[in-house]
Specification:
The protein is an all-alpha fold and about 80 residues long. The chain has one domain. Helix content is about 65%, strand content about 0%. Helix 1 packs across helix 3. The radius of gyration is 18 Å and the shape is elongated. InterPro entries: Homeodomain-like_sf. This is Transposase.
């Protein structure tokens, strides 16, 4: 007698808390590549990491934005 296969349960979207987001963005600001962070943390793509960074900088205000611009200038 064959057993019936259970239907696949959809995984749904993973939820990440603010601390996780903050630590991931901090890794990016510390100089790790977005690709290496995505691989290490098991994220789906770099897009989510850059979205978290943009939100974090927006909440931090103009000082953080100018600091980010200075970092980009130094890297270039």
């Amino acid at each position: 007698m064959r057993q019936k296969r259970k239907p696949a349960v959809p995984q749904g979207r993973r939820q990440f808390d603010e601390d996780f987001n903050r630590e991931a963005v901090q890794m990016l600001l510390d100089g790790h590549t977005a690709g290496s962070i995505v691989d290490r943390l098991g994220l789906s793509s770099t897009t989510i990491l850059y979205r978290w960074k943009r939100k974090q900088l927006a909440r931090s205000g103009p000082v953080a934005s100018s600091l980010d611009a200075s970092i980009k200038e130094l890297e270039a």
